């Protein structure tokens, strides 16, 4: 055997051995420690249609994001006007983007309008009735908030799902305010829905000392009896405006309760939140602070002293899973607006097993027919083509495992299409070899000419298919991506198996002596 053929044969052998080692985690998880540093340790990920899971389309209430922004803007304006000694009262939001308030002293009207015009160009005055002012968020600003709400919701849901531990989820925007979420392998869909759809808007508000004061708000909540441990429904009247929101949280961790207490969530504030919390607790010793999550009071402890260090806890009648999920959503951030489930369906794992079985059955039947037809029609050259096909399949599955790709039912269709293209490439090569032999060429010259003349057609068809697959992967979604992924990888392994590996096998089997015959 020539040295060049030996090198090429060694290349094929190394590639096949590597691919087969990559496939080992699909059959066993009992792997040595050194394996993890060199080779993949996880099997091929199965998509939603193969292993079951949940499919949801979420609708984001982007208008609510505008309302929340206007509420926060009102609280910020009140604080800044107070610092500038511009007294106001009766702040409230009307509609989606209007802020209405009263100016106590008309002598401050010029200062008020100058301040708002210079520092808040995103609001415009739309009316003045005596001492009552109406400002509105400009249209461009409101539209920007809606757009940003969708993008933030998409990123927040993705962060929550990542922390939840779902392998290869699909999370993408589907319409103006729609988000597609596919979670393969999730066995507890109700918990996943609670985790994903929870708004998790956290607020810190002071409980009102005077229940008859204007602007106070009644919120519901639960209190846990310290003796029996049973929660009971209560109501709280809180002051208007909030001290802080959940955006000042830098970390949140669930903790198991001690001595029979319920689990709780320990939160850490960022620098700004820590300063606000320390200042407010110092000014409000003896008062109750309500910790409000999605409009419900989780707890309302009495402030005993100034609290520094930027730490606090959220208690309640949580189970350990509920505390863990709350910590996840607080770390990932609150949704900028409520989301609702517009469409939902569950795919059972039995359906996935049936799909895999059907796909394997069709692959086996088709594979046997192809192998036999190549052997019968092309004899020894057919055996070489079948060996190249086997190399192609092993490499394709090895690459999918190595890169932790997700295999879907359309992905199986992509593999079958790839195998068909590999067979087509070998048919082109064998037919060109036959033509060269009929013209009187020796076996070795016919082999070289056959590959040389067939190669342009093979590359042309495969490269154009590869480009189409890449476009589908870039711009497609869900099943289309799964098909495009296996097709694109399969094209590359097809060129290696049908052109490189099969030629190595031919060069090994074809006699080198003059007058040697070729079985084809």
Intertermini distance = 21 Å
Structural class: alpha+beta
- Summarize model confidence as the mean pLDDT: 84
Please state the overall shape, judged from the principal axes of the Cα atoms: elongated
Residue fraction in strands = 15-25%
Q: Looking at this structure, what is the CATH superfamily of the largest domain? A: Multidrug efflux transporter AcrB transmembrane domain
CATH architecture of the largest domain: Up-down Bundle
Mind describing the biggest β-sheet?
4 strands, antiparallel
CATH names the topology of the largest domain as Multidrug efflux transporter AcrB transmembrane fold
Radius of gyration: 34 Å
CATH class of the largest domain: Mainly Alpha
Number of helices: 14
Number of strands: 19
Helical residues, percent: 40-55%
Largest sheet strand order = 7-8-2-18
Spans of at least 5 consecutive residues whose pLDDT stays below 50 are: none
Overall number of domains: 3
Describe this structure in words.
With 520 residues, this protein is of the alpha+beta class. It has 3 domains: 3-48 and 349-509, Multidrug efflux transporter AcrB transmembrane domain (Multidrug efflux transporter AcrB transmembrane fold); 63-142, Alpha-Beta Plaits, CATH 3.30.70; 202-320, Gyrase A, domain 2 (2-Layer Sandwich). It has helices spanning 3-23, 33-38, 48-51, 62-83, 109-119, 139-164, 189-197, 271-283, 320-332, 349-378, 380-402, 409-438, 443-475, 479-509; strands at 45-46, 53-60, 88-94, 98-103, 123-129, 132-137, 170-173, 178-184, 202-206, 217-224, 231-238, 244-245, 249-255, 264-269, 289-293, 296-299, 311-314, 339-347, 406-407. A hairpin with a 6-residue loop joins strand 10 and strand 11. The mean pLDDT is 84.
């Amino acid at each position: 055997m020539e040295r060049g053929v030996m090198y090429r044969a060694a290349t094929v052998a190394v590639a096949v051995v590597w691919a087969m080692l990559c496939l080992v985690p699909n059959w066993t998880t009992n792997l040595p420690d050194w394996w993890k540093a060199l080779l993949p340790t996880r099997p091929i990920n199965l998509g939603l249609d193969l292993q079951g899971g949940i499919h949801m389309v979420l609708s984001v209430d982007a208008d609510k994001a505008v309302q929340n922004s206007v509420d926060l803007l009102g609280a910020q304006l009140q604080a800044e006007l107070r610092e500038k000694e511009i007294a106001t009262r009766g702040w409230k939001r009307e509609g989606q983007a209007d802020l209405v308030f009263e100016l106590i002293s008309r002598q401050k009207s010029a200062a008020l309008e100058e301040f708002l015009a210079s520092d808040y160009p995103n609001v415009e005055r739309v009316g003045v009735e005596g001492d009552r002012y109406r400002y509105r968020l400009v249209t461009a600003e409101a539209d920007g908030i809606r757009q940003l709400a969708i993008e933030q919701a998409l990123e927040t849901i993705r962060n929550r799902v990542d922390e939840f531990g779902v392998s290869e989820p699909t999370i993408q925007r589907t319409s103006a305010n729609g988000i597609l979420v596919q979670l393969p392998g999730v066995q507890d869909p109700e918990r996943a829905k609670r985790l994903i759809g929870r708004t998790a808007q956290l607020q810190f508000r002071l409980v009102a000392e005077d229940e008859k004061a204007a602007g106070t708000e009644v919120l519901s909540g639960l209190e846990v009896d310290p003796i029996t441990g049973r929660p009971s429904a209560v109501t709280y009247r809180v002051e208007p405006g909030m001290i802080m929101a959940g955006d000042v949280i830098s970390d949140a961790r669930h903790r198991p309760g001690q001595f029979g207490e319920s689990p709780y969530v320990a939160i850490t504030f960022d620098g700004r939140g820590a300063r606000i919390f320390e200042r407010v607790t110092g000014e409000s010793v003896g008062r109750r602070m309500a910790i409000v999550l999605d409009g419900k009071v989780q707890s309302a402890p009495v402030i005993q002293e100034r609290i520094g260090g930027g730490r606090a806890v959220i208690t309640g009648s949580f189970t350990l899973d509920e505390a863990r999920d709350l910590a996840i959503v607080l770390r990932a951030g609150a949704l900028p607006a409520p989301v609702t489930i517009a469409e939902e369906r569950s795919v059972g794992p039995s359906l996935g097993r049936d799909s895999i079985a059907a796909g394997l059955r069709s692959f086996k039947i088709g594979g046997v027919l192809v192998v036999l037809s190549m052997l019968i029609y092309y004899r020894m050259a057919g055996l070489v083509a079948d060996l190249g096909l086997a190399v192609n399949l092993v490499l394709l599955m090895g690459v999918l495992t190595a890169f932790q790709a997700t295999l879907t039912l359309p992905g199986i269709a992509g593999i079958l299409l790839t195998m068909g293209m590999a067979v087509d490439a070998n048919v082109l090569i064998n037919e060109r070899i036959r033509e060269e032999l009929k013209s009187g060429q020796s076996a070795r010259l016919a082999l070289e000419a056959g590959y040389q003349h067939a190669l342009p057609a093979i590359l042309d068809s495969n490269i154009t298919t590869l480009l189409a697959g890449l476009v589908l992967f870039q711009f497609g979604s869900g099943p289309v991506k799964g098909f495009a992924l296996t097709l694109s990888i399969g094209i590359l392994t097809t060129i290696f198996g049908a052109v490189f590996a099969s030629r190595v096998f031919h060069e090994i089997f074809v006699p080198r002596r003059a007058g040697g015959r070729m079985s084809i």
